[in-house]
Design brief:
375 residues; single chain; 3 domains; 434 Repressor (Amino-terminal Domain)
Length: 375
């Protein structure tokens, strides 16, 4: 994980500057033998000499030492999975302390810091009270600021901007969210309309395999985005049953065409839940229960037969290598028990109170409880 390459670096830096060990020793104020020992890994310079050496070679101390606090994607995935499992089985504050210690160890590994932000955002509701939850959200925001200030990866910075906006939304910093995202997500920007250009470039370059893979990924992401946007559309128009029913009718056709309840059950579950809320608010129990059953089915599908959360199917047959390259691979961001507990908790929505004595509603809750206990 973290390694030092001081000896190798010193040799390269000295040779690039075209100076001898003796000349370097004279500048630093040590013997030629000391420099020789540094380069042959027999010893390291006194810590007080590091700034002088860094200034001499016009580099930072980290660059001089060759300090690389970088974790591989596999290591990040492993640490995230371990911490997510710990959050489900150990005291919350103990796991927070453990994860914060890792942050201190890898404070310059920005991909890891980003995943820690995701981890905390996925689990902060386990904190004992709202005050502590807000403290954790503030920690996430500060860590996002650290990434944005030091990271040169534009893609990671854009992801961090979106993640920080999600945190600001939780904290009620609404103007900051609008300011951060309006320009980044401006639909008039050519960067938000460039998928087809890359696909054409692959095709014209004779790389049909890459074109096929990227086309499937793009279609998949647009499908997930359409579903997520439809959830908000239902919430925006919940007072108009006719608009909501037309939205549900159209999205049902999309779900059936792309088998979305099994392809991406998490997104599908959010849609069916919001549809159930709409019908519950209009006091139509039959429809509310119907969509709650679909919601529960999607929660079941999340961990069905040990299948990974992210996967393709016989239509999206080229996307799984892309998932495997992602920082967390194909795994779930939260433990199965926590997902089931969260699913149960949101059934406490006030709109569902009039369903509490219905057999179907009771069965749905019992099913989710049983799923949580299977972990």
């Amino acid at each position: 994980m973290s390694t030092l390459h001081f000896s190798d670096n010193l040799i390269k830096l000295r040779q690039k500057k075209k100076i001898t060990q003796e000349q370097l020793a004279d500048f630093v104020g040590v013997t030629k033998a000391s420099v020789s020992k540094w380069e042959t890994r027999q010893s390291l310079p006194d810590i007080l000499l590091l700034p002088k050496l860094a200034v001499f070679f016009d580099i930072t101390i980290d660059e001089l030492l060759g300090y690389e606090p970088i974790l591989s994607n596999e290591q990040i995935q492993k640490l995230y999975s371990e911490l997510a499992a710990d959050f489900a089985s150990q005291p919350f504050e103990e796991v927070m302390e453990k994860s914060r210690a890792l942050v201190n160890n890898y404070y310059s590994c920005y991909p890891f810091l980003f995943q820690i932000c995701c981890l905390w955002l996925n689990h902060f509701t386990l904190a004992e009270d709202i005050g502590r939850r807000n403290e954790i959200l503030t920690l996430i925001s500060d860590l996002c600021g650290r990434i944005l200030a030091g990271c040169s990866d534009i893609g990671l910075c854009n992801d961090t901007t979106v993640l920080k906006a999600a945190v600001d939304l939780q904290l009620g910093n609404i103007p900051e969210v609008s300011e951060a995202l309006e320009e980044l997500l401006n639909p008039c920007r050519l960067t938000n309309q460039s998928d087809t250009l890359l696909i054409q470039a692959y095709r014209l370059g004779g790389n049909d395999k890459k074109a096929d893979s990227f086309t499937q990924i793009s279609m998949y992401l647009h499908l997930i985005s359409l579903t997520a946007d439809s959830v908000h559309f239902l919430a925006l128009h919940s007072g108009s049953l006719s608009v909501c029913e037309e939205t549900i009718r159209r999205m049902e056709a999309v779900f059936d065409a792309f088998r979305l309840m099994r392809l991406h059950p998490n997104t599908a579950a959010q849609f069916w839940y919001q549809a159930a809320v709409v019908y519950a608010e209009h006091k139509i129990p039959e429809k509310a229960l119907e969509y709650l059953e679909r919601y529960a089915f999607c929660i079941d599908c999340l961990f069905e037969n040990g299948e990974p959360l992210l996967h393709g199917d016989d239509f999206f047959c080229q996307i799984e290598p892309w998932f495997e390259q992602a920082a967390l691979g194909t795994g779930a961001p939260r433990d199965q028990k926590l997902v089931s507990d969260s699913a149960l908790q949101i059934l406490e929505h006030p709109s569902f109170a009039f369903l509490s004595s219905e057999d179907k509603f009771i069965n749905i809750k019992n099913s989710l409880k049983k799923k949580g206990k299977q972990q």
